[in-house]
Amino acid sequence: MTPTPDPAHALPGATARPDGRTITVEVHLVHVVDATTVTIVDEFAPFDPTRAPVDAIPPSLLEHTGHGLGIWMMTDMADELCDERVGERNRLSATARHR
């Protein structure tokens, strides 16, 4: 099953589930000699940003009015991007190798 993108991921104030429970978001940062990995774990609806469409980037970012810049930045800057669903949680890891 391929989850469909949930617009709540990009909207401010999306901090509760439909059932009213608070959503937990964890951010982990690991830095080693040649790479840095950021892992984000959340309880939002299933969402795989590695499969989401990326908006075309205009010549000037000031002209950009749509969503999708966060996904574009991740795919552009990360050397490795991995998404998985673990139980009721999304786990996204982005690794950038130091050059």
In words, what does this structure look like?
The protein starts with 24 loop residues before the first strand and ends with a strand. The model is unreliable at 1-13 (pLDDT under 50). The chain has one domain (21-97): Histidine kinase-like ATPase, C-terminal domain (Heat Shock Protein 90, 2-Layer Sandwich). A four-stranded antiparallel beta sheet has the order 1-2-4-3, covered by helices on one side. The protein is flat and about 40 Å long. The protein is mainly β. The chain is built from one helix and four strands; from the N terminus they run ββαββ. A hairpin with a 2-residue loop joins strand 3 (80-86) and strand 4.
The rough form would be described as flat
Helix content: under 10%
Structural class: mainly beta
Report the CATH superfamily. Answer: Histidine kinase-like ATPase, C-terminal domain
CATH class: Alpha Beta
Number of strands: 4
Could you give a quick summary of the protein structure above?
By secondary structure, the protein is mainly β. It has a single domain (21-97), classed as Histidine kinase-like ATPase, C-terminal domain (Heat Shock Protein 90), CATH 3.30.565.10. The chain has one helix spanning 69-77; strands spanning 25-32, 35-42, 80-86, 89-97.
